[in-house]
Specification:
single chain, 223 residues, seven-stranded mixed beta sheet, disordered N terminus
Length: 223
């Protein structure tokens, strides 16, 4: 009898625990924070029989880059057969706005522009800080001078504007009074669209455009 009572108590505790967990999950989903299902990791060049067709450099802020603005376009490029390196100000762990952690492959100051066909600036609240680092500005200016393709998403286009590579170019950005002003001061023609392509430049206005942005980067590289 005593064993039956103990078993009943344990069963009640287990059921209450499951109910509490379900309630927490529902609350999390109600705020739009449901975790996406992880997609299988694919090796670079998988869709092209292992051949790397070219290489892109993604630049992220050391703190508060936007996670999916890195992960989605990066995955799209790699699936299409392109290599991707990630750079930041240092090779110390970089942290995303959504809690992701990334160990950059290299520091921006160590990047050799001749190794890459494209340079992409990832957005997020931390992106404008990149414009305060001369090595970032110099690398972007050199990329344009060498005829490399350029991309930026969210607040990333503000960094391109600071580097002087948006002169007379159509571009978009995460729309705030400050961000639009930064583009216009850099000589860009602001276009209020999710993704804008102008010759060898692709810009996008935020995380919701990350997938379309990645697809346009591939088109640009293939062009």
């Amino acid at each position: 009898m005593r064993g039956v009572v103990l078993f009943s108590v344990l069963l009640v505790i287990l059921l209450l625990g499951c109910a509490t967990k379900q309630a927490i999950v529902r609350e999390k989903m109600s705020f739009g924070e449901e975790e996406e299902k992880a997609e299988p990791v694919q090796e670079q060049g998988q869709e092209t029989g292992g051949e790397i067709m070219g290489k892109a450099l993604f630049i992220i802020a050391q703190k508060n880059f936007r996670d999916e603005e890195l992960s989605k376009p990066k995955q799209i490029l790699e699936r299409a057969g392109y290599g991707v390196d990630v750079a930041s100000i240092t090779t110390d762990t970089a942290t995303g706005m959504l809690g992701g952690v990334v160990r950059p492959d290299l520091a921006v100051r160590d990047a050799d522009i001749t190794d890459y066909d494209m340079v992409v600036v990832v957005g997020g609240f931390g992106a404008p800080e990149l414009a305060k680092h001369q090595e970032v500005i110099d690398l972007l200016a050199l990329a344009e001078d060498k005829g490399k393709k350029l991309g930026a998403i969210c607040l990333g286009p503000m960094v391109l504007a600071k580097a002087g590579v948006l002169q007379d170019k159509r571009a978009t950005v995460y729309k705030t009074k400050e961000s639009v002003a930064a583009l216009e001061q850099g000589g860009a023609v602001f276009v209020d669209q999710s993704v804008v392509v102008d010759n060898d430049l692709v810009t996008a206005n935020g995380p919701g455009a990350a997938e379309a942005f990645g697809n346009e980067l591939v088109k640009l590289l293939r062009g």
